[in-house]
Amino acid sequence: xxxxQLSAFTLATPLGAGVSATLDALRAGRSGLARCDFLDVDLDxxxxxxxxxEDHPVRADLAAYDCRNNRLAQLGLEQDNFIEAVAAxxxxxxxxxxxxxxxxxxxGILDTELAYRQRAPETGALPERYNYEGSHSCYxxxxxxxxxxxxxxxxxxxxxxxxxxxxxxxTAARMIEAGLCDAAIVGGVDSLCLTTLYGxxxxxLVSNRPCRPYSVDRDGISIGEAAGFVLLExxxxxxxxxxxxxxxxxxxxxxxxxxxxxxEGAGARLAIKAALNAAGLAPGDIDYINLHGxxxxxxxxxxxxxxxxxxxxNTPCSSTKGATGHLxxxxxxxxxxxxxxxxxxxxMPGGLNTEHIDPALKSAYLLKxxxxxxxxxxxxxxxxxxxxCSLVLGQVLNRGSR
Amino acid sequence: MRIFIEGVGVLGAGLSGWPASLPILAxxxxxxxxxxxxxxxxxxxxxxxxxxxxxxxxxxAVGCEAIAHSLRDAAELxxxxxxxAGDGDNMHxxxxxxxxxxxxxxxxxxxxxxxxxxxxxxxxxxKSMAPTTSVACFDDSFVAGLIEAAxxxxxxxxxxxxxxxxxxxxxxxxxxxPVSATFGIGLVLTxxxxxxxxxxxxxxxxxxxxxxxxIADAELEAMRVGTPAARGLPxxxxxxxxxxxxxxxxxxxxxxxxxxxxxxxxxxxKQLDVAVLRC
Lengths: 402, 279
Prior knowledge:
Chain A is an alpha/beta fold. Chain A is 30% helix and 21% strand. Chain A has 11 helices and 17 strands.
């Protein structure tokens, strides 16, 4: 595929708001997970909750979109001068030439969950103030972000569970290639809600300790919440060598089971190979792999088989979910942004919370941070319904001049 | 963007598949509302079939019809799913359980709650490991799906199937989001013309200048306005007119009925223009 540049990016995760807070936490090996204190949830688990969202409303003129998910979107947009970078792109291309393609799995359904508790006793009706379009609607977050950034290009939400905000990179690349826009805001937002906490718990997939990806005693995920955004555009002539590029996107389906990955990681392997192929790179070119690495028995075993079958056991890899929790529909973009930081800072984060790597897993899983040249990364996102997406990022211009 | 349509599937009350719907949508037969019957998919294992709700069955049925029409193998085709609402019955059940003591959400209900549940079941049913995606764009979900599928078609050497579906929410969500009908469309799109191509589409986004193209029949028009997936009906009507012109005797008369351009509402201040051309 034609490389696209990541002209600006930002994120807000349980590690903190903004790129610096994220990088500092990863370097310090600090986790954003804490014992669950979200609303009245009575599960014995750890979550990555973003503090202060309750007091961080959406923009006043967009109050119709006020819900936890769009608040988190707003918090993310406000970091790292992202709004200014988008304003500059708007000057370059015009507001109708910039698309908005975002991923989410649960959108603002927390509002509906709470509204169901307040149904009228006689009629069962939802409370008057309940607003479906601004919260629950799957499209709500892209609608909000498009308005908040004053853009008017094509827009949609991709909702493919935990691969959502990786797959939007593919959508953006195709939209730009087809000439429907010149640049795009891609990313994803997913926020804590009862459906995912109790739902994953019902599947026996939630750990009662901070999640331990690749550990011999791993026993499930810790759920987190996050927003991540990237301004993606065609490579500009004046782009400097520190700019990270999207080089490849690979997508596939498991065709196996709704909530269990293919045991040999056959779908993940297809996505990884497709991403490498799109980037025109060989497995040996990849310096670091940001794994999906959720910390469930089945995900890590399947993903390890896929990764080992393509890369062998030497390419350094890790999961950052011990730090951030599983960010679900925001996992893909946050994995991509962390990978971009790895490239910019020649840094690889060690996976947190894991003491003893499962001897059955054969990939080169990092338990400690590593400072080493990183030119090219691969990040994996694997979701329910067998939806897989891998992204290849890298610096391709004259790196020596840095 | 220029693409070709090679196969069509449709299901809605009184629209039982493409062959039966073609004369109705072409205006040659009256529309008669009838109870919607979704053909059971033989592709899903019975254990999986029992776990699925209306949206999954609907999506599978229209997707399979369109692909059978195109004489292609579903296992090889990337698939784009577009829906505004997803599975409202399933979500209602989960919200109801979460509002009660115990909060016991069934694992199957939970994995069926993801917006991409139909695409997950689709890939299991068709044994397709090709990419699938699931998009949403509120009332414009059909248009967003058509754009996504068209750009995928241009980027791919293979055909792509677009599957748009929606079904009403139960009470009390229905009052907050009144999706009016259960309706699904399947379209097989290709980048190059084949001997099975039904029509060529010229697709572009422009600033809003025109009203969206309506459907002549009042009841179908109500379905179009009230159901995001049914926003695609004018495209099917234009295809039906084209197909009946090919087979029918009164070429001149029916060709005059084909609009040069179909206009879809698309986001604030924009529209999607689709020219349906003979090929």
